[in-house]
Structures are given as C-alpha cells and as structure tokens.
Design a protein that fits this description.
alpha/beta, Rossmann fold, Alpha-Beta Plaits, 4-stranded antiparallel sheet, 13 strands, 23% helix
C-alpha cells in the first residue's frame, strides 16, 4: 500500500496479481488504514470483484479524469519497464486508465521479467470483430504467429468492448517494440495492442526470497 494514500482515486487492474492488490486494498479500507478511496475499474471483472470486496467505484470521466495511481499486473516486464499486458483480455481499458493516471505501478512475480519483450508471452492484439480474419496475413507480415483467442468451450473470446483478440507469438521475441506498435496503429480494424511502452513508472517484482522495486529511466 506504499503507493496508495487516503483520499485517492485509484485505477484497479485486472487479473490474478491485481486481485491480490484488490484484496489488500479492501482490507485496508475495512480496518481504517485507508479512507475515502475510490476505484476506477479496468474491466467488468475488476468492477465485479471490487464490488464484492466493498471498494467504492467511480467512472473515468469529467468528474474523475485522472486517477492518482493505477495498480496493475503485467504478463512481461521488459527493459526500462516496457510491458506486455492483456492475457486477461482487458488491454484496451487497462491502457486507457493507465494513460490517464498520474502513475502506473506494476506488480509482478520475477518470472514475468524478460530482457526482450515477446520471448515468453504472446502479444495480445485486440481487433474489431468485423472481418477480423483479414488481419491474420498482416500480423504474419510483421513477424507474428497469430492465433485467434478462444474460450475454454471453443467459442471465440469477446472482450468487454465486443472485440476479438489475436495472440501473437514472435519466435525470436520483438526486436523493435516501438516500430511494431507504429505498424499496428496504421492498420484499420486493429483497435489496440498489449504493448505498454513508456507508461509504467514503477515495477515491484518479487520472488520467493526478495522484492525488487524498479523505476523507469
């Protein structure tokens, strides 16, 4: 809770690691260590979970345009705190909340730390459902091996924004994340990618023995 203070508006991340933060935040509110906290959820999942835990919620908008901090997880933490996020399917809303926050703090286990993005995790790319198959050849032209995300029952995964996701494997990792992000933005129908470049301010990376705090730059 070092980065959260009473009276803050806090962006609430999505996923198993972020859920641990939500539980800790709810406990701090219950026992009075924190007061007057309002959360901005980054997905329907985090909205539902925060409601279950009794965390007050507000929408991101004119009244609450800039959370003081967003606490979230990551699928990969690379050099200078560049990230891959989105295996939970909430990358678009996560990025909107993160970019509007004064500070993005990432919590992750040491297994998520990489020297080159794309070496362990696929890169999620969110696309409009309309003619989504047309993006496969373009993603392959960028060096990716794209796979349309499906649910456990085999149906096509649909995001909170009614879009689809292609999980893109890069056999040798992503050589130039900034160039890839630029290429993805140029393609009509590609809504967002899980590349979070130059956004995170702090990453708290833990293993079974120690906790390391990293700062961008």
């Amino acid at each position: 809770m070092a980065h959260v203070q009473s009276g803050m508006v806090v962006g609430l991340g999505t996923g198993s690691t972020a859920d641990q933060f939500l539980q800790a935040l709810a406990a701090a509110l219950r026992d009075g260590r924190l007061k007057d906290i309002r959360g901005v959820p980054t997905s329907r999942q985090s909205e539902h979970r925060a409601t279950q835990l009794g965390i007050p919620l507000v929408p991101l908008g004119p009244q609450y345009p800039a959370p003081a901090v967003t606490i979230d997880g990551a699928d990969e933490v690379g050099p200078n705190l560049d990230l891959i996020k989105g295996l939970g399917g909430a990358l678009l809303r996560e990025k909107i909340v993160a970019q509007n926050s004064a500070k993005l703090v990432i919590i992750a286990d040491s297994g998520k730390s990489v020297k080159k993005l794309g070496t362990h995790s696929p890169l999620p790319v969110e696309v409009a459902a309309f003619a989504h198959e047309t993006h496969e050849a373009y993603l392959r032209s960028l060096g990716a091996e794209p796979t349309l995300r499906r649910t456990a029952d085999g149906s096509v995964f649909v995001t909170d924004n009614s879009n689809n996701i292609y999980d893109c494997r890069f056999p040798d990792g992503i050589s130039d994340p900034h160039a890839l992000e630029t290429a993805l933005r140029q393609r009509a129908g590609i809504v967002e990618s899980g590349l979070f470049l130059g956004i995170a301010a702090i990453a708290i990376v833990a293993d079974e023995i120690s906790v390391e705090t990293r700062q961008r730059g």
